[in-house]
Write a structure and sequence with these properties.
This protein is mainly α and 262 residues long. It is 61% helix and 4% strand. The chain has ten helices and four strands. It has a two-stranded antiparallel sheet with strand order 1-2. The chain has a two-stranded antiparallel ribbon with strand order 3-4. Helix 8 runs parallel beside helix 10 and helix 9 runs antiparallel to helix 10. The relative contact order is 0.11.
């Protein structure tokens, strides 16, 4: 509910503003320790990324309420946004976007960690689980760049708005595609913020979609084996449908004005 989200936002904002906050039966304040504020910014940013790789990866709709709170907090407390990006880029280099290359002397285990895989006791997580986590984090990122906290000061610019999404898309299309990963990330990103990008960039966006269809999808196909076609097929049909209908559908779960009256 919108009212519940406002409560959560106010509590986080009050804590970061140095006000005493009630939690689990005790009162806490960042002023209680010289590094209190820095610690809270760090842990809060880390928590938002964990929401992306956990909650959002399983429930795509949850990207929007989480993102709108983070967007508002980022506006008032830029330090949280900076640390959030640092955590996000470490966990999901594709959010930069960046495909780390394996350097000489780097062990396979260390390289897999650089690529975003979780490695425990030399056991690497399964590909499905890895892709799900990366998908959740990209969806959260794509939701953040288009959302403003509705009760904030609208005078200033979004601290990390749609221009960053436009840049991400352009940089992504300049990278050589990876099997599995690239098709999934492009589809996630376009599903979540394609409709916002088309409103902002119009004809330039449609040119990019046409480029994806004619030039980039064939390059993804060239590196994709027959067993990895699922996500690529979904990306192809999504792009084709959008170009045919000259419309990008609004993402499922987007927060409407009526949400804030709940």
């Amino acid at each position: 509910a919108g009212s519940k989200l406002r409560e959560v936002f106010d509590k986080i904002n009050n804590l970061l503003s140095g006000k005493p906050v009630q939690t689990e039966g005790q009162t806490v304040s960042v002023t209680q320790h010289p590094q209190g504020l820095e610690f809270v910014c760090y842990k809060l940013a880390e928590k938002f990324v964990k929401h992306g790789e956990g909650e959002v990866s399983f429930h795509h709709d949850s990207a929007f309420p989480i993102a709108v709170v983070l967007s508002g907090i980022w506006e008032l407390h830029p330090r949280v946004g900076d640390i959030f990006l640092a955590h996000l880029h470490r966990k999901c280099p594709y959010a930069v976007p960046f495909y780390p290359a394996r350097k000489e002397g780097t062990s396979m285990e260390e390289y897999q960690r650089m690529l975003g895989y979780e490695v425990h006791d030399s056991k690497v997580e399964e590909q499905d689980h890895f892709l799900k986590r990366m998908s959740g984090m990209i969806r959260l990122y794509a939701a953040i760049i288009q959302l403003r906290w509705p009760y904030g000061n609208k005078q200033g610019a979004h601290p990390h708005g749609l221009s960053y999404g436009w840049r991400w898309l352009a940089q992504m299309l300049n990278l050589e595609p990876l099997a599995d990963v690239t098709a999934m990330l492009l589809l996630d990103f376009l599903e979540v913020c394609g409709s916002a990008l088309v409103k902002q960039y119009g004809i330039q966006f449609w040119k990019t979609m046409f480029f994806i269809q004619k030039s980039y999808i064939p390059r993804i196909e060239a590196v994709t084996s027959s067993g990895q076609m699922g996500c690529l097929s979904r990306l192809k049909s999504f792009v084709q449908k959008c170009l045919q209908e000259k419309e990008i559908p609004s993402p499922k779960g987007i927060l409407t004005p009526s949400f804030w009256r709940t």
